[in-house]
Amino acid sequence: MKLASPSDGRSGSAQIWNSAPQLAQIPPITPSSLVPPGARVVIIAPHPGDEVLACGGLLQLLSNLEHPLKLISLTDGSASHPGSNVWPASRLSVVRPQESVEALRRLGMPLHSLKWIRGGFCDNALAAREAQLSQFIARYLQPGDVVFSPWRNDGNDDHDSVGRASASACSLVGAQLHELPIRAWHWPAREAAIIPWHRARKVRLDAWSVARKLHAAHAYASQLAGDPQIGLAPMLAQVLLERMREPYEIVLS
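Below the sequence we write its predicted structure tokens.
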């Protein structure tokens, strides 16, 4: 399947997020229905910033409900600008964790109590280490956890591998898994039938939550800047930011 490239997307292009009629039919769900009272929430992010793109609004709502939160960042995102002298991996390995801290602060996350695990895996190479990923994730889960990970068919190799590894780890431990499409929303509209709409639930966000999510995304300065010298477009393309303005997030349950 040829997926849409967000870096090439335009606001008027027919992508799933801005043209699929099924979006209007998705039933709503409340955070308290997704996560039982007192349950721990675990967010699994392949790369820094994926947690903001996927569920920055839901994170705010769950934090306000005082759920214990754990974030597992599997890579440091240092391979986001291959071949760049402006953003070499050595610089990104320092900058991107700092950006993540600032993004979570902008979301209003309780950094003093947030349990944050950094996996140290190499990004753009997770598919070859899927079994290790599953074992690593399972190590930090416990029965009764409610886990949010990328959808295993998101169309990005790292996202798909993490989705499968998360599903395996949850099955092993006895945790509940919800999946989050990220890149899939930017597939061409003709691919909309591939989305498992029967599993989709809509978490509604107010204007303040959306604004904070966008503010958090802009903490990733390295991802908002490409490298014109080598023809590298920004990783956080404008079309991704436009989608984040939608007053809801979608969870596959």
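The radius of gyration is 17 Å.
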